Amino acid sequence: MLKNETYIKVKGGKALKGNIKISGSKNSILALIPAMCLGDGVGVLTNAPLISDVEAMKGILGEIGIQLNCESNSVRIEGNIIYNELSKQYVSKIRASNLFLGVLLAKFGKAVVPLSGGDKIGNRPIDIHLYVFDKFGIKTKVVDGFVKCEATQFPYKGQNIFLRFPSVGATENAMLVASAADSETIIYNAAMEPEIVDLAILLNSMGTRISGAGTPVIRIKTSDSKLVRTSHEVIPDRLEAGTFLFMLAVTKGRGIIKNVIPEHVISVTSILADSGVDIKIEDSNIFIDATNCELSPIHVEALPFPGFPTDLQPIATVYSSHCIGMSIIKDTIHTERFNHLYELSRMGMVHTNIATNIIIEGIQNLAGASLEGTDIRMAVSLVMAALIAEGESKIYGLNHILRGYDNFVKKLMGLGAEVSVIDKDTIETIVQKKCI
Ligand code: UD1
């Protein structure tokens, strides 16, 4: 277990060069693991990322009687759910643990799950999830930090449900709950993220009949047979791919991002190409070359997929500081997700707010500093800023990065970045663990 005092030492000013293989998607596997719980038999998720959020999932599964074992880059799941209640121990670590409400409701018609944790990136209500449950006739109440749910009739009937906002988690919960309904469910204004499609593919391979995933209308028909676990390959992590694309571009580097589904990162590759970066796509490879190019300013608005992802907004913000001219950044998903700006100001980065827009005038010369990231993407954006800052930086918050990025530091080293992981107490470089 890494101590929070551990930091990444970064020497800035070097162009990143080389090839990098993208790992399996964090957000996908965090929905696929709960979905696997609905089946019987042995399930295997291949292309699994080595991240600490999967460890938290292992703890949650253990509490309800299911075994999860990580073997190299795959995750094996077996056993049957025997409890319908979860404690705060692991649930508090990750946001996606609220999907166990859907899982336990589909299994037992009853669930007691603590309010979930995850990144502190502003208010993250679950009213849409509870609205979905209510439509199925499931009564819910929040007592002392626990969400308690019970179906008035079980199995419940399928429903037509309109989501007021295409919430990823609420769409996933609706799909899980609907898989146990005794008639068809239709979800309108569903989230269209690639992780929703990945979830539908897994559930269908287990025996559900879901159509329309990836569009705003998803239909879930009843299935007569029991769901059976299968083997499934997790999609590549579009957010990791986007992160490294921005890093290579901002450092004026070049390389190949491998194992990507290019359509999943079209918002990133379009913005970078419009900004003057040479981008070529061949099958699952993205060739990027930013050597000798002057970066034009960007206009980013974080929106539901296929719009620009909110998770890459802090990273795009750092990128904009190295563009010539005025960039505009807006986050419509998490409007308060700008903690990185306060830390970045310690490197000398300045911004202005005009209404809900963040305006960044570049090029700004950043100076190395000691900074702390308090969520996954913020911490990574600070590392990215350190890569372009003059001198040395210390970035705290590696524990957050390891929640969602597989082998982050090793991958950066592979691209030639001057980075190392330092333990503050011993002032020694930590021997590289497998997943750092
Ligand atoms: C997922 C992703 C996260 C990403 C987010 C948006 C996982 C594990 N996490 O989170 O990385 O940043 O999608 O793409 O997949 N909302 C409500 N009420 C609700 C639910 C959501 O108001 O009941 C709001 C949220 O406050 C937020 C917006 O809807 O402003 C998007 O949230 P949602 O799509 O639900 O995100 P998550 O599923 O939590």
Record keyword descriptors for this entry.
UDP-n-acetylglucosamine1-carboxyvinyl-transferase, Chain, five-stranded mixed β-sheet, single chain, 436 residues, alpha+beta, binds uridine-diphosphate-N-acetylglucosamine, 2 domains
Total DSSP helices: 14
Q: Ions, cofactors, ligands: which are bound? A: uridine-diphosphate-N-acetylglucosamine
Strand order of the largest sheet: 21-22-1-23-24
- Main sheet, how many strands, which sense, barrel? 5 strands, mixed
CATH class of the largest domain: Alpha Beta
Spans with pLDDT under 50 lasting ≥5 residues?
none
Helix content estimate: 25-40%
Q: How many structural domains can be distinguished in the coordinates? A: 2
The pLDDT mean sits at: 94
What's the CATH superfamily of the largest domain, by name? Enolpyruvate transferase domain
CATH T-level fold name of the largest domain: UDP-n-acetylglucosamine1-carboxyvinyl-transferase, Chain
Backbone shape: globular
State the end-to-end CA separation: 11 Å
Structural class: alpha+beta
CATH architecture of the largest domain: Alpha-beta prism
The proportion of strand residues reads 25-35%
Q: Compute the CA-based radius of gyration.
A: 22 Å
